[in-house]
Amino acid sequence: MDDLEKEAYADIESAENPEELKKLRIKYVGRKSDLTRNLRGLKDLTLEEKRTLAPKLQKIKRSIEELLDSKEREFSSIKEAAKADLTRPGIRHRTGHLHPLTIMERKVVDIFSSMNFSVVDGPEVETEHYNFDALNIPANHPAREMWDTFWLKPSATSEIIAKNLQISEGAKERPGERLLLRTHTSPMQVRYLETHTPPLQIIVPGRVFRYEATDASHEANFYQVEGLMVGKDVSLANFKYVIGEFLKKMFGSETEFRFRPSYFPFTEPSLEVDIRLVGGKSKSNANLKAIAESRKSDWLEVMGAGMVNQKVFEAAHYNPGEWRGFAFGVGLERLAMLKYKIPDIRLFYGDDLRFIDQF
Ligand code: FA5
Q: Is 0.85 topped by the overall pTM?
């Protein structure tokens, strides 16, 4: 039997196909095999002989059967593999990725965080008070026209409060006040000053809305990042340094920018920051040239800014003249257009995956 076991092992190992294996199964463990015959013959032996031989024979049978089974599995897996065409190209799964504006917002947040600015959030549904009045833009002031406004129906107010949308405390304090979709992130200046004590430095990224016609550089829904730094002796020099650092970190030291005098009721003095699209030292390309052509200028305005008007501190119940600060509001799409050389702002909100998939 020991010889038979060895022989069976060698035969099974060298079997080349399932048919051969089938024959070996019949030969070694089939009904008419020597092994089965011997097992059957056990009944004619003495009890003593049965006790020693039976377990031995059964063990040999089991191990031959196990080897046959494993060899059979081997043949069936080879058969499965043969069915697969290993030369066929794989299926590429589409993975998700961030929208270019999200990438841009994160870059802005990273740079300002590295300069110790905190990031805060504000409500998109604002009151007339925070969006305009507290920023020194009274009802009859011509500057209100700078921000064409989406007003909410008076009946919407209670609905919004009921839905628990982010809405100013002021709306509850001054019931009946008109609500609007914020036209800029500047309302957060007063809101934050009311609830915190300077010195402070924050940025407020957020979505803003304007009722205006769209073109290559204007959208009705866009993103701004507000900045506010307040201290005892914050000056315009601090502003120039912080913004200069920000622009250099964002666009590299070769990009040219300029500070240009401007007007906002909530800053004094006020200025705007432009980035050079074509000409000078700036590295340009066809898309940036297209923006320049559509705007009829070699420069693209990216932010409004200035020293916080003392009237804003007063609106937040501060003593006049006690604190000084600078504020700015930068357009996120405009930054992304410059960074990624995108000729039209409307691409960000379109559904063209060929554009979105590039990021
Ligand atoms: C403001 O909104 C002021 N709140 C900015 C400010 C903040 C001034 C703090 C002083 C102190 P302005 O309307 O210029 O300003 O908009 C600021 C920036 O938002 C612009 O420079 C531009 O980059 C972007 N922006 C303005 N309008 C649009 C628009 N329709 N589509 C896309 N981006 C826009």
A: no
